[in-house]
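Hi V.,

Quick status before I head out on leave. The structure for the redesign project is tokenized and pasted below; the design run finished overnight.
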């Protein structure tokens, strides 16, 4: 979208004030005392608009909800314009707010690109990359990659949280994390998907289970047997259901879990079996509390992917993390 010369000049003046700031760390006291605009305040405004929530914008930027409110009030006073229409259950931008948002996005993009080209340490606001991952990937697949990243990029901090795939999609869309890592990523109009590694699915059971001595298991041998799996809200469950359906196999669902650790403890009782990503049971195989068998009709793989919001500019730090995890 083209911006008029008058508006461009307006933001050139703001940019001059922006880059005169020496300390890029948000400090409510400093912001309120001085007359300059700090680059972090532009990001806070952008995040507030993306989430339409003062509390969520505060969480993203590691500040309090009150601090967000104070910074927006400061912006409006500094500019002499109302940017946001507030009300019970209502959040909207004024005409001036829409113009200011476009300028914020441009300035943040220019700042990030400039820092990247200079190969200099990034500003304080973009040094922490917030990641959300499903547990079975974040706990079993990511640790060695995170360790090598931290060793190579000491100026970038990683904040990793575990969540369900549907909630990760919601948080990526709302801007509560920089990107998410999920299994079986699905298309969404606001989400970009970068395909990740494929994880092999195997049949898992306790050593005392009656089929445990086989070197390979056929899906037909599992027909009508007791099975423990994930709840239906987890995409891995849906994919496994499709595998059974495609091979005309019907199992007895004994229990459904939203956590792979609890699921594995259930398997250790020796009364049922499951299909799980092979990398999630390495410790149990080593401890000999569970065994795995390849599936004769396979191999079957669990797809993984990295998701980001389409219309949200990613920081150079976020690009660096995604590139490292995808290597």
């Amino acid at each position: 979208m083209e911006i008029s010369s008058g508006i461009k000049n307006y933001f050139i003046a703001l940019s001059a004030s922006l880059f005169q700031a020496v300390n890029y760390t948000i400090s409510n006291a400093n912001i309120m005392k001085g007359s300059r605009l700090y680059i972090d305040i532009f990001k806070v405004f952008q995040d507030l608009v993306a989430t339409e929530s003062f509390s969520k914008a505060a969480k993203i930027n590691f500040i309090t909800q009150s601090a967000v409110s104070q910074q927006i009030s400061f912006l409006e006073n500094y500019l002499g314009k109302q940017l946001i229409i507030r009300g019970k259950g209502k959040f909207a931008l004024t005409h001036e707010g829409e113009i200011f948002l476009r300028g914020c996005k441009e300035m943040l993009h220019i700042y990030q690109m400039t820092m990247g080209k200079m190969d200099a340490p990034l500003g304080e606001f973009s040094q922490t990359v917030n990641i959300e991952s499903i547990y079975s990937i974040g706990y079993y697949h990511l640790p060695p990659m995170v360790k090598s990243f931290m060793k190579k990029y000491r100026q970038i901090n990683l904040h990793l949280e575990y969540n369900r795939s549907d909630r990760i999609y919601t948080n990526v869309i709302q801007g509560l994390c920089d990107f998410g890592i999920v299994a079986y990523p699905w298309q969404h109009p606001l989400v970009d998907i970068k395909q990740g590694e494929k994880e092999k699915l195997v049949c898992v059971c306790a050593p005392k289970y009656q089929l445990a001595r086989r070197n390979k298991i056929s899906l037909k041998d599992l027909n009508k047997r007791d099975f423990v799996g994930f709840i239906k809200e987890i995409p891995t469950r849906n994919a496994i259901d499709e595998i059974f359906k495609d091979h005309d196999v019907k199992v007895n669902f004994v229990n459904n879990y939203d956590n792979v650790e609890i699921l594995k403890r259930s398997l250790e009782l020796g009364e049922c079996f499951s299909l799980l990503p092979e990398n999630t049971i390495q410790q149990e195989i080593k401890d000999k509390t569970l065994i795995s068998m390849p599936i004769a009709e396979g191999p079957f793989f669990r797809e993984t992917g990295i998701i980001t919001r389409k219309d949200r500019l990613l920081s150079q730090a976020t690009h660096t993390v995604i590139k490292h995890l995808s290597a």
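Above is the designed sequence. The mean pLDDT is 82.

G. will cover questions while I'm gone.

Best,
W.
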